[in-house]
TrEMBL record:
Annotated HTH hxlR-type domain residues: 26-124
Membrane-spanning parts: none
Gene3D superfamilies listed in its UniProt record: Winged helix-like DNA-binding domain superfamily/Winged helix DNA-binding domain
Origin superkingdom: Bacteria
Keywords assigned: DNA-binding, Transcription, Transcription regulation
PROSITE patterns per UniProt: HTH_HXLR (PS51118)
Pfam families in UniProt: HxlR (PF01638)
SUPFAM superfamilies reported for this sequence: Winged helix' DNA-binding domain
Designated name of the protein: Redox-sensing transcriptional regulator QorR
GO molecular function, one term: DNA binding
Length: 139
């Protein structure tokens, strides 16, 4: 069985269990919600290049607000993907680093980045076709 087919089977199993138990918790969806948000992957990839201070991250991702940067860093730290290091200087210096769990995410993210890079022209062409289709209303 291919890796993709195996992943699809496991996801289907989670979905069945979710429906059967009438539970609002699904491990896969819980994790994907974090790493699939607008900013987390960008921050993880920035931190993959080395530890950074808050202001360095903000310069690297200039379209994120300071409030959202703070919240995303806290969420990534809460999930064990990022660590926060405070140095006893005046004023205190704070650096963020990828935790080992965050490092383990780099290979799957690299595969996704590679896929996006190879498929971007197809995705862009599909968007142009969709947006330009007369009379079609997106649902």
């Amino acid at each position: 069985m291919s890796t993709a087919q195996n992943a699809i089977e496991r996801f289907s199993q989670y979905q069945r269990e979710l429906r059967d138990a009438q539970s609002a918790h699904c491990a896969v969806r819980d994790v994907l919600d974090r790493i699939g948000d607008k900013w987390s992957m960008l921050m993880i990839m920035e931190l993959a290049m080395g530890s950074q201070r808050f202001s360095e991250l903000h310069r690297a991702i200039p379209d994120i607000s300071k409030r959202m940067l703070t919240q995303t860093l806290r969420d990534l730290e809460r999930d064990g993907l990022v660590t926060r290091h405070v140095f006893p200087t005046r004023p205190p210096t704070v650096e963020y680093r990828l935790a080992p769990l965050g490092q383990s995410l780099l290979d799957p993210m690299a595969a996704l980045i590679d896929w996006a890079d190879r498929r971007y022209s197809e995705i862009h062409a599909a968007r142009v076709r969709f947006d330009g289709a007369p009379g079609d209303v997106p649902s």
